[in-house]
Every structure is written in C-alpha cells, then in structure tokens.
Amino acid sequence: MGVSATNGGSSSAGLITPGAGAGLRDVLKSRFLLKLLVSKELKVRYRGSVLGLLWSYVKPGVQFVVFYIALGVFLGLERSPTNPGGLPNYAIYLFSGIVLINFFTEALGNASRSIVGNGGLIKKIYLPRQLFPVASVWVSGVHFLPQIVILVVACLFTGWRPSLIQLAAAAGGFLIVALLATGLGLLFGAVNVYFRDAENLVDMLLMIATWASPVLYSWMMVQRQLGETFFNIYQLNPLTVGVETFHFAFWLPTTDGAEPIPPHLLSMWLPIGLAVSAAVLLLGQLVFRRLEGRFAQEL
Q1: Which end of the chain lies in a sparser environment, N or C, as judged by fewer CB atoms within 10 Å?
Q2: 77, 75, 113: which is closest to 206 by C-alpha?
Q3: Which of 36, 210, 35 is nearest to 106 (CA)?
C-alpha cells in the first residue's frame, strides 16, 4: 500500500493543466516545429501564385512609388533647387521607413489571425500555441530580408558609408519593432479567439501605424506642430523610435551629415523603446497563457 500510495502521489505530481505550457520557452524548445510552420506558411501563401516570393518586392515597390510621387513630388517633401526646405534623398528616407513599417504591419496582421487560422490543427493535436504567432513574425522577417537588401543597394549608390554605431542602432530599431509585433501578435491572437472584433481593431491600428511614425514626414514637423511636451509623448511610440533609428542608419549617411536627428535618440529613446516593447511582449505572453487553455473549445 505504501508503495502504491507513493506511486500515486508521484503520478499526480506529474499532471499538468491541459493546454498550459511554458510560454515562449516552449517555442525555443520547439525550433524544428517553428521552422516547419514558417515553411508551411510560405508555401500556403504562394500556392498557385505566378510571382511567388517576388510579391515581397512588388508590393513595397508600388507603395513606395505612390508615396514618393504624392508626397515627395506633389507635396514638395523632396529637396530640390526650387524647394530647399525639403528632405535630401527623400527616396531613401521614405523607403527606409516603409520597409520597417511593412514588416510590422505584416507581422502583426498575420500573427493576430494565426490562432484562428490554424484552428483545425490546434483542435487535433497539442503543440505550443505560441508557435503560430511567432511563426507569422518569422515569415514577415523572411519578406523583410529582400527589401532590406534593396534598401542597402540603393543606399550604396547614393554614397552610403555608415558607422558601426549607426548599424547597431538599426539592429536595435529592428529588435524594438520585432518585439512589439510579437507581443501584440500574442495579445491579439489570443483575444481574437474569443472576440473576433479584435481583427477589426488590429486593422485600424495597422492603418494608423504608417502615419503615427515619421515614415512619410520629418520628426521636426511633429516637434514644431506639437511642442516639446507632446513630442516626448510621440517619442514613446516604439515604432517611432524604430523608424528614426533606420533613418539614422540608412538615410543620414547618404546626406551631408548636417541633417539633425531626434535629440537623445540613442542615449534615451532607444533604451526606452526597447523597454516598452519588452513590456508589451511580457503583457502579450501573460494574456496568451491565461487564455490558451480554452483555445480548442472556443475554436
């Protein structure tokens, strides 16, 4: 009896709550599954497509041309002999912001729908649910790579000579946006299982994202219009900091170096952006783990 009781107690101790996992640590332990999910998403997305992965070039290219003509040419944001108040190399300025915002919007949009979109798989087998939003962010990273290659080539043609600090700033900016997209993807991906209105809310956020950061315009315009106090609030947006670091790394070295950068960008705003994105990631993880236990039933 004593042995039986001991065995029974040991067996009970090994039980875990159904559907509960170790969060993002499970993703790290399931890197092979993550690779398979990324490969699956890429194959499914381009199944039956003629251009395939080339769409990752075409879409941002069309977006860039439209914004450049509308804002750089018609609204005069491009510096020229007749418009000395514009931005030099506005094409580089614009594209360096667009590639980062495109990564964020694609990552968050797909991550927020990833759990519902893989409902059939989730109901059949158990695997770490966090894999689905994280895989969506990784797929967006795959699409981000060819765009950044095009940006670097364009920068080289305009005399790009970045410093190590500028390259490190770009890496920090990308990390900020990736953490933010993952955290919000976990948050809205989980909430969307219970309330499908979350998809519409995400669509609204993504519509605002391009205009809520200095992608199309200069940060100095914001500072002049809002004043110092509201400008500091504007700077609390991690996307803003990410875009500004990309401008600092890719656009500024193609100019004469006299263009100003946001005050305290590297010493204060970059660490704050990382902290805010990390806090969003933690919040998203906590909400996801709280809700994931009933995903199979709700789906």
Answers
A1: N
A2: 113
A3: 210
CA 58 distance to own-chain centroid: 19
Instruction: Please name the residues in contact with 96: beta carbons below 8 A apart, sequence gap of 6 or more.
Output: 151, 246, 247, 249, 250, 251
Rounded to 5°, angle at Cα 93 from 232 and 210? 60
- Exposed/middle/buried for residue 110 (C-beta within 10 Å: 0-12, 13-18, 19+): buried
Of residues 237 and 209, more confidence is placed in 237
The residues facing 85 across adjacent strands are: none
Residue-wise pLDDT tens digits, 14-51: 544 554 556 677 777 777 888 888 887 777 776 666 56
Inter-residue contact 136 to 129 (CB < 8 Å): no
Q: What is the pLDDT of residue 287?
A: 93
- Cα distance between residue 187 and residue 104, in whole Å: 15
Question: Is residue 180's pLDDT more than 90?
Answer: yes
Q: Which two tokens stand for residue 116?
A: 């519902």
Residue 149 in tokens: 């290659």
Beta-ladder partners of 87: 78
Report the length, in residues, of the chain.
299
pLDDT value, residue 11: 44
Least confident of 54-63, 89-98, 132-141, 148-157: 54-63
CB 77, CB 102: distance < 8 Å = no
